[in-house]
Write a sequence for this structure.
């Protein structure tokens, strides 16, 4: 039996500017990612990957098209069907390429704050944060400031934070860009592990072709058009 | 989890330095308020302490604190017979500047009407009130003089027998208390050469006056000092101060005395109002305006500091928004930091002020009411000054976190 859909997009279009300066950043982008599935999105700069990621991350709504996350329609074109910030808090996790931890919080607090923002009591959030960090192999650095962690450890903490509220979908924007190939691959394998263990759909935007074997599905994007890679 | 406290702990050194800066600024605001209050207290101190219900001064003058006022000594006796008067005594007040121990000594001298008034009402911190009619003086400790020290004033030497605290004139000068006669001697001290010249001039004038030619004895008397001449009035009082029987109709007594053509009468409240509204009004208003300006400047500086602190956190704020933090989480963080900064600054201002204000040349009086008022002002400007930072934080888009 197939896992339920984590996210589904239908005919997403995004137009920037108007008239002579009009740019079509996404053209009828339709994809579906199931829970536990790990998807890579490849493409050159300016292909529309970030536009797609911010659209499905409910940060930058599309001009047209629909988005369904965790079985619930959330956007119909630019029109929000739910409270986007609250929905993002509960259903979407983000991981970025660097500088993605809050510098004045410890590693554990970076994970804990995501849960507290979602209404989890402080004591419970702390316990769950430590458990997640244990699972991701960074529990021994829990009380360290982000600046004291290596790039790979920072990314593990960021993944822990992204998973803090058990999201339907985890979006990662070039998460290995600041890492060497060994650590880059470790992070990609980590995504695969958490996707399978937590039943979270994962979309990773990457330029890194060396770890593509980790992904269940690979998409390529060019000039705003998305297609499944061979 | 308190994000404001976490951020402060992360940048503790910078926060402490900023708080010290704000604290120093608030200390100046606090000090300005204290000087303002001290000015008013100093102005009314003597009137409060001396225990007079009425002040009788030269007609159409505002009394010895505002301008020159001369009333005859006999006025004391005239006043004493007015129904409702318990006691009346002379009052002499003037400011002198002399050399003492090779440094200038500026002092306001107040004459006590011996033996009625020996200075028992003075707030002594050491020594005793006056016990003899001459050559003793009680001084305020702000003058920096010691008990038993001897002061040369005019032709006489006075021994310091008592020290007071907080007895300063409207100008902020420490006061000295001697008997009326001694205060007159100090006020009208004339150098011997001037006495000789005046005596010679008097002799010359008498030779041209038929009265003196007809009465040689009168001419001989002109060689005596001026204050011993029966025809020339002795130096006069600055005012007469009056105590009334409890329950007396003050207005009736005032009307009775005011009907005399040579004096004006002020109640204690009138005198205080004259001092506050007249003597120190401009200084008071100026200090008040400075205080307002400094408060506004403190608010602007705090706003800029909080804005800068917010700018430093823009990426973190974008991250918080991206992971779904409500606006009130971010608002709370900025406002709490503003209030903590203002609060810590206020505490620093208070304790630094406690240490520094006693060294100020003028008295700085911190009243509970003023401190509470300033605390409320600090709270308000802390919240208001965070508006700029909040405005900037609210404009941050969550996708700014993606920009790295």
């Amino acid at each position: 039996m197939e896992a339920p859909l984590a996210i589904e997009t239908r005919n997403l279009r995004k137009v920037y500017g108007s008239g002579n300066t009009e740019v079509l950043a996404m053209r009828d982008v339709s994809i579906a990612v199931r829970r536990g599935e790990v998807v890579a999105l490849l493409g050159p700069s300016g292909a529309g990957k970030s536009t797609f990621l911010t659209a499905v991350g409910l940060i930058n709504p599309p001009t047209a098209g629909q988005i369904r996350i965790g079985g619930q329609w959330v956007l119909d074109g630019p029109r929000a069907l739910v409270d986007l910030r609250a929905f993002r808090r509960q259903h979407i996790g983000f991981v970025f390429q660097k500088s993605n931890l809050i510098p004045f919080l410890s590693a554990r607090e970076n994970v804990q704050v995501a849960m507290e923002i979602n209404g989890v009591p402080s004591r419970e959030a702390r316990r769950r944060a430590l458990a997640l960090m244990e699972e991701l192999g960074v529990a021994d650095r829990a009380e360290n400031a982000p600046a004291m962690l290596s790039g790979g450890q920072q990314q593990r903490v960021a993944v822990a934070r992204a998973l803090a509220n058990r999201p339907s979908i985890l979006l990662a924007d070039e998460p290995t860009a600041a890492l060497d190939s060994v650590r880059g691959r470790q992070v990609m394998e980590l995504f695969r592990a958490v996707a399978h263990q937590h039943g979270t759909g994962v979309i990773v935007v990457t330029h890194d072709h060396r770890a593509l074997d980790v992904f269940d599905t690979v998409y390529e994007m060019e000039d705003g058009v998305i297609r499944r890679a061979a | 989890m308190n994000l404001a406290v976490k951020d402060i702990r992360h940048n503790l050194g910078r926060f402490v330095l900023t708080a010290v800066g704000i604290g120093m600024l608030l200390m100046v605001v606090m000090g300005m308020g204290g000087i303002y209050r001290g000015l008013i207290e100093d102005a009314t101190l003597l009137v409060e302490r001396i225990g007079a219900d009425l002040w009788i001064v030269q007609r159409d003058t505002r009394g010895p604190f505002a301008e020159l006022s001369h009333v005859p000594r006999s006025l004391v006796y005239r006043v004493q017979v007015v129904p409702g008067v318990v006691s009346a005594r002379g009052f002499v007040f003037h400011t002198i500047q002399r050399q003492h121990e090779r440094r200038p000594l500026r002092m306001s001298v107040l004459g006590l009407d011996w033996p009625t008034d020996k200075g028992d009402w003075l707030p002594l911190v050491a020594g005793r009130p006056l016990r003899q009619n001459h050559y003793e003086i009680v001084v305020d400790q702000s003058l920096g003089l010691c008990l038993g020290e001897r002061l040369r004033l005019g032709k006489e030497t006075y021994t310091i027998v008592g020290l007071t605290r907080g007895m300063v004139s409207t100008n902020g000068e420490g006061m000295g208390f001697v008997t009326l006669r001694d205060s007159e001697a100090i006020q009208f001290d004339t150098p011997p050469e001037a006495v000789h010249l005046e005596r010679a001039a008097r002799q010359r004038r008498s030779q041209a006056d038929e009265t003196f030619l007809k009465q040689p004895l009168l001419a001989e008397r002109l060689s005596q000092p001026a204050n011993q001449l029966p025809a020339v009035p002795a130096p006069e009082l600055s005012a007469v101060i009056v105590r009334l029987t409890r329950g007396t109709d003050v207005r009736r007594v005032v009307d009775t005395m005011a009907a005399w053509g040579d004096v004006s009468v002020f109640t204690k409240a009138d005198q205080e109002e004259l001092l506050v509204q007249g003597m120190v009004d401009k200084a008071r208003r100026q200090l008040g305006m400075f205080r307002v300006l400094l408060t506004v400047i403190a608010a602007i500086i705090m706003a800029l500091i909080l804005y800068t602190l917010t700018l430093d956190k823009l990426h973190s704020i974008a991250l918080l928004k991206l992971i779904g933090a409500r606006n009130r989480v971010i608002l709370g963080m900025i406002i709490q930091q503003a209030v903590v900064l203002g609060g810590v600054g206020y505490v620093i201002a208070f304790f630094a002020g406690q240490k520094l204000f006693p060294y100020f040349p003028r008295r700085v009086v911190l009243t509970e009411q003023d401190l509470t008022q300033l605390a409320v002002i600090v709270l308000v400007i802390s919240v208001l000054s965070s508006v700029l930072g909040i405005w900037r934080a609210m404009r941050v888009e969550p996708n700014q976190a993606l920009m790295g």
